[in-house]
Amino acid sequence: MPHWLQLMAESLPSLLWAGLIFTIPLTLLSFAFGLTLGLATAIARLFGPMPLSAVARFYVWVIRGTPLLVQLFVIFYGLPSLGILLDAFPAALIGFTLNIGAYSSEIIRAVISSVPKGQWEAAYSIGMSWRQAMSRTILPQAARVAVPPLSNTFISLVKDTSLAAAITVPELFQAAQRIVATTYEPLILYIEAALIYLVLSSVLSQLQVRLERRFARYGGMLEANA
C-alpha cells in the first residue's frame, strides 16, 4: 500500500470521530438556534415596534459587517477580559448561532415580504388572528421559497465550522491539524479533511434537491386546490 494511502486510512477514524462528535453537533445546534433567532429577528424587523426593530437592524448590521472568525475570537478570547469565561464549544456555538441568525433573518424577512398581501387579507377575513395567519398561512408559503437559500446557508455552515479550530474546538479540521503535527504530512491530511467536507456537502446538496422537489409538489397541490 502506498504511504499516502496508508496514512489516510490510519487517520480516517480519528477524523470521522471528530466530525461525528463535534462538527455535526455544532452544525445542527448552530443552525437550529440560528434559524430560531433569525425568525425572531425577521419578525421584529417587519412587525415589531420601532425600538425593537432598530435593535434587530443593528444586530444584523454588526454581524453581517464583520468576519465570522473575528466574531469567534471576540467571544472566546475577548469576553474573558470582561470576566465572561466560556469553554470552546459553547463559544463556537454562540458565535455560529449569532452569525446564522443574522443571515437567515434576511432570508426569512425577504420571503415573508414576498407573500402577497391578499393572503393576509384572506386569513383575516375568515377570522384568523395575526398569530394564526402567520403560522397557518404566511409561514407555510414562505417556507417553500426559503428552502433553497436556507439549505445553502446550512451547507456553508458545515464548512464554516472548520473555523472553530481557531478557538481550540477539537472538530474535524483541528483533528487533521493534530495529526499533521505528529506526521508532518500536511498535504495528505488536509486533502483528506477536504474530501470529508466535500462528501458531507455533496450529501446535503442531494438532500436539498429532494427537499425542494417535495416542497414544489406541495406548492403545486396547494395551487391546484385553490
From TrEMBL:
It is a multi-pass membrane protein. This is Amino acid ABC transporter permease. The chain crosses the membrane at residues 20-46, 58-79, 187-207. Keywords: Amino-acid transport, Cell membrane, Membrane, Transmembrane, Transmembrane helix, Transport. It holds the Pfam family BPD_transp_1. It is found in: Cell inner membrane; Cell membrane. It comes from Rhizobium laguerreae. Residues 20-208 form the ABC transmembrane type-1 domain. One of its GO terms (molecular function) is L-cystine transmembrane transporter activity. One of its GO terms (cellular component) is ATP-binding cassette (ABC) transporter complex. The keyword Kinase does not apply. Belongs to the binding-protein-dependent transport system permease family. HisMQ subfamily. PROSITE patterns: ABC_TM1. InterPro entries: AA_ABC_transptr_permease_3TM, ArtM/GltK/GlnP/TcyL/YhdX-like, MetI-like, MetI-like_sf.
